[in-house]
Amino acid sequence: MKESQSKRDNQKSPHLSSGTAPFSTAAEGKPKSPTGIQPPTASNTGQKATVAEQELYRRYEQEQALVQEELLRLAKREREAAGEMLGTALQRERNSTNEERKRAAQLPEDLDAWAVELQGREAELKRQEAFYKEQLARIERKNAEIYKLTSEQYQEAATKAEEWIKRRNIDPVCAGLQSEILKCYQENQREVLKCSELAKEYQRCVSAAQKALCVPHYPFLEENFAVLFSLQSRAPLPRSF
């Protein structure tokens, strides 16, 4: 049974048909395994390698090859990912550079447009300033004319009122009753109630005189003072020109 098993293994691995055949090339340079581990040979072990040891070593080599293949695949994947990241970063940088270049090319046009807009605004401000200055000068001239006119009218009305008052002959009001009351008080210093009737009569006389001196009895005075007060309330304050 051991011989039949050995024959089947030798058919699977032709180079293992004999126990020492694969390792008879030691004199030709001793080829090394990819893993750096030497396969068991008669020189290393001092005896002929068994078929089980050869099979074990073959499986070990296969596992190592799988590991190496997986490591290579992982390394390739990492290189591809790094390449994609680098490409994305480079593309982003190129896009940013292109945008900056476009903005730099557009900047002179924007500056020209801004300059034209500012010139238009300055021209409009100058036009408005000239218009408001003209309006202000016109208002000041009108105020000066009104002030001059009202001042002349005020002076004229005041002069007329003063002349009319000077021409007016003012007599004492109820002079006779006033003398009688003074005489009564002098004669009745301790009994002043005796003069109460004269005092009442004097008050009635004064009231009547006040009513007689009201404006309707003096139309010229009423007219002059009405003009005087209306001009006073309407006249603007003088400005410095």
SSE order in H/E notation? HHHHHH
The termini sit apart by: 139 Å
Query: Helical element count?
Result: 6
Total strands: the figure is 0
**How much beta, percentage-wise?**
under 5%
How would the global form be characterised? elongated
Largest sheet: none
Low-confidence blocks of residues: 1-8, 10-35, 215-241
Oligomer: single chain
Helical/strand content category: mainly alpha
Helix content: over 70%
Radius of gyration: 67 Å
Mean pLDDT, all residues: 70
Pfam families: MIC19_MIC25 (PF05300)
Function: Component of the MICOS complex, a large protein complex of the mitochondrial inner membrane that plays crucial roles in the maintenance of crista junctions, inner membrane architecture, and formation of contact sites to the outer membrane.
Family: Belongs to the MICOS complex subunit Mic19 family. Metazoan Mic25 subfamily.
Keywords: Coiled coil, Disulfide bond, Lipoprotein, Membrane, Mitochondrion, Mitochondrion inner membrane, Myristate
